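Sanity check

After download, print the first record. It should look like this:
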Amino acid sequence: MSSKSVSPSESLLDELQSTLAHGTVARRVEALRRVTDLFINGAVDYSSEQIALFDDVFQCLMEHIESSAKVLLANRLAPIYTAPQLTVRALALDDLIEVAAPVLSGSERLDDEALIETARNKSQAHLLAISTRRVLSGAVTDVLVLRGNDEVIQSTVRNPGAEFSKRGFTRLVNRAEGNDDLATCLAMRPTIPRHLYLKLIAKASVTVRARLEAANPKQAGDVPTAVREATRLARFAPAAFTRDTTTAHALVKSLHEDGRLDEFQVAAFAEAGRFDEANAAIAALANVQVSIAEQMMVDTRAEGVMILAKVAAMSWSTVKAIINMRDGLSGTEPADLVACRAVYERLRPSTAQQVLRFHRMQQTVEPAPAA
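Expected structure tokens:
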């Protein structure tokens, strides 16, 4: 930028010296308005060094001004992509929600670090403002899900730009029990992990299942009115399979066909928390359908895992990795590994095969026709 183009800024900054040193609140507010006008008028042309200079001035002026002036500043800076970052951060961390909300909900100058700090330490109103942002990373939604009240949670789950980690989805599924609105929104999230979708559907109320039927009329038969049928039929519902699930199953099928699938690969999937791959791999090694293995894997007890593993002749170390993965993803109380090991070592392969045949038989039973 030429010296001519920066002279208004330099001139104003010179005038600010006396205001910052001796000016009244009224003079500071007027100076803030003028600086804001100057910044907005040339925001797209300023260099990073010039923006940093505005940042310093804004923060000095903000130290002794009324909240109403901060609210105006927040509203004016929030839509500007090049807004001074430290100023925007200070506005976001303001205790007064009227000041913080415009930048928390709309400013793209706030990074995840600032959003997480705010979400961890500020009010539910601050969390609600964050939940409405155009894009939310899994790291940010983790905090919103952990600290947020029902309104914050509902707003976050309804946000199409929000991403959720496996931990976040697990907490949401547990929290959705007894909350029909949340359960419905959560079940319709396309990225919800398969095993958590099944858990959610199994516990869904009649109201939730009716809403899902209405939202997906062509798949209404996949959301029956009985919880047990809901659990079983949900395994076949195309809506329950995410793109990640399909990719995972294709990967395991390829490994199996190439002779590269073994229990060490299963353990690696489990230790990485990759449920879909681990489940499909166990199914392949135990020679059962993926849906049967999945039903046994999502059971609240660990016996299903041990039966599959015994049929596949897996070692205890692999079984332990699978149980730990399952418990970690489901958010349930960790299994008693000492007791599980004792049961696994006593379990005979012939007994495991018999139990597995029983599960196969249950899978083939079709539900009664709807009245």
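If your output differs, re-run the checksum step. Summary of this record's structure: Residues 164-241 form one domain.
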